[in-house]
Specification:
The protein is α/β, with parallel strands linked by helices. It has helices at 2-11, 22-31, 75-84, 104-109, 157-165, 176-197, 201-206, 208-228, 237-251, 258-264, 275-284, 290-306, and strands at 17-19, 33-37, 42-44, 50-52, 63-68, 89-97, 117-121, 124-130, 133-139, 143-146, 170-172.
Length: 307
């Protein structure tokens, strides 16, 4: 996702600094950044952006936006490290979390004022085929950016404009909590089950047995949301599931879950920020979530075998 969003900002003439692992940075410096797939092909020469392995290497100060595109399990470390480099921040610098799952904003707000922290909801599929090359594989809706803490989202206007000009439709949202829980419903139903069974999302929706599992996962997530005081765009599971099966899954039918990709790549998954986050909230309210527990533990088993 990081390379995909960076490609949009570079294409729209933004002043972009990329922080990544050494192997990625060396590839970017040598061959530039490449993007293929939906929204067209784009290639940026290495002279069009800067790449670094460490925050300490950056000479520039007072960025407008700092985008966090790490996996959710790296949120704490990213927030902690970023908080040390205060010179990167101006009075109006905003941190925007382009991350999966629930709980990332709370991690960053323990290091930064709420007014700095914004969330992005992304339902676009990115697949990195080389260290410096990303393919956009699916796209279900525009990127939404807003504050979970009730802060004004007008400051996100310029960022949304730049990403949109670079290829991926992006807009401000005053309902980012609803947006993020909509994505949680989508991810919690599809991600772990797709990983366990090694099938695309469309296959899960076509089978009565897997439909039954996903329906129950969604019902449990709604129960947890209600008990926790959170809201989404649908009042009940039935309303969401109608959109889920008729639009959301068909739009991403060929996609395989990022959890499966992580397992196959022998990497840690983000299951703790997805179904794991639902399970934690359920424990706080003494709610039973057996379907979420089942798929969560199956993914944990696969993760332990491969990671």
């Amino acid at each position: 996702m990081g390379l995909g969003i960076a490609s949009c900002l570079i294409k729209s003439k933004g002043n972009v600094h990329i922080i990544a692992r050494e192997k990625t940075v060396l590839s970017l410096r040598r061959d530039g950044l490449k993007r293929r797939g939906l929204f067209g092909d784009f290639q940026a020469e290495s002279s069009q952006f800067s790449g670094y392995c460490r925050l300490s290497e950056i000479q520039a100060q007072g960025f407008d936006y700092i985008l966090i595109c790490t996996k959710s399990f790296d949120s704490l470390e990213a927030a902690k490290e970023l908080s040390v480099h205060k010179r990167l921040f101006g009075d109006k610098t905003k941190i925007v979390l382009f991350q999966n799952g629930w709980g990332n904003a709370q991690v960053f707000s323990s290091f930064f004022n709420n007014e700095r922290v914004y969330n992005a909801r992304v339902i676009t599929g990115f697949h990195r085929v080389e260290d410096n090359e990303v393919v956009i594989t699916v796209h279900a809706d525009s990127i939404h950016i807003g504050s979970l803490f009730g802060c004004d989202s007008s400051c996100m206007g310029r960022l949304c404009e730049l990403i949109t000009q670079g290829g991926i439709p992006t807009e401000k949202s005053e309902d980012i909590e609803k947006d993020l829980w909509a994505k949680m419903l989508y991810n919690c139903a599809l991600n772990p089950l797709g990983a366990v069974l090694d099938v695309a999302y469309g296959t899960l929706a076509e089978n009565e047995s897997t439909q039954r599992i996903m329906d129950n996962i969604v019902e449990e997530v709604f129960n947890v949301m209600a008990a926790s005081g959170y809201q989404t765009h649908w009042q009940n599971p039935a309303d969401f599931l109608e959109v889920f099966y008729n639009k959301l899954v068909p739009d991403t039918a060929e996609h395989k879950s990022s959890t499966l990709q992580d397992i196959l790549a022998k990497k840690q998954t983000e299951i703790d920020a997805l179904n794991g986050a639902v399970i934690k909230l359920a424990e706080n309210h003494q709610i039973n979530v057996p379907y979420n527990l089942a798929v969560y533990n199956m993914v944990k088993f696969l993760e332990a075998q491969s990671y």
